[in-house]
Amino acid sequence: MATGGILMALGATVSWAICVFPFTKAARAMTVSSMNLFRLVVGTILVMLVAIILNHNNFFSIFSFQFAIAWLWLGISGIVALGIGDYFNYRMYVILSPRYGSVLTTLSPAAALLLGSFMLRENINATGISGMIITITGVITMSLSRAERINIPDHGHGSISKGILFGIVAAFCTGAGLVFSKQGFLTQAKTGHVIDPLTGSFIRFIVATAVVLLITFVNQKLLINWRNTMNQSWETLRLAFSGTIFGPLLGVGFALSSIQYIDVVVSQTIFALVPVVALFIAHFVYKERITFRALAGVIVAICGVVILIWRNNIQAAI
Fold first, then answer.
1. I need a surface site. Which of 4, 29, 30, 279 has the fewest CB within 10 A?
2. pLDDT confidence bin for 122, thresholds 50/70/90
3. DSSP assignment of 145-175, as one string?
4. The pTM is what?
């Protein structure tokens, strides 16, 4: 089933690359806090409805004590990745833009590798580490070299340095969140009560949404965000909704499915191709020019992913 896991990871990569464009536009119009809250609430509802439709016989059983372990680990994963990580992700995107900001997602495999080795006992050989480094190097060369940084437009939402800092925080939260998710699936399976990826995604979303709503309420900003969202144009809300379809529903669903079959670090490195996909979306949809440096970075990044996926075969042949 490794092939299925790789295809799921690629599906998540494409979905996330698509969603960052409408999310970035929506966040610039309605603020990151309001957009993030909208995304969490709508995402929770959508994931719940799809999970009930596709898995109605077992969905409601997750509210029993038998699934307490899943709620613990997947809840932590949701708070870290969806609550904290995605907030900083979209703070980054409104500053750097989807094409340039998505490069920082390539740092997620490093967090996944460190935590995965400690918590999940997932090991990766030297060839795999080389592939991961090649992928990250290629994507960074593509997007954050000095020659590329001067092309980042100033949208008035913060400095480039602040955007990069937000991206680093988000990347490590994303990598850590995926490791916590796999820990939840594995530990829950040992109890004899397996949980499917879509239902696990619902747990992540509802816990993250509840925590963000609570924090917003305590900070007395819940009503402000609600009014701000209701005052947005239908076009802005449509952008936020379409981003939710591709991100929280499809992207997260594919991602959680992929880690059922392949190591977290492999999934995360495939996810590192998000900026590669975003580069082509920016070119063909938004008519942004692709430079030779960017194209070279794409080729290097893809080579790195191929090395990572076939690391065991390559290591055995050496």
1. 4
2. low
3. SHHHHTT----SS--HHHHHHHHHHHHHHHH
4. 0.87
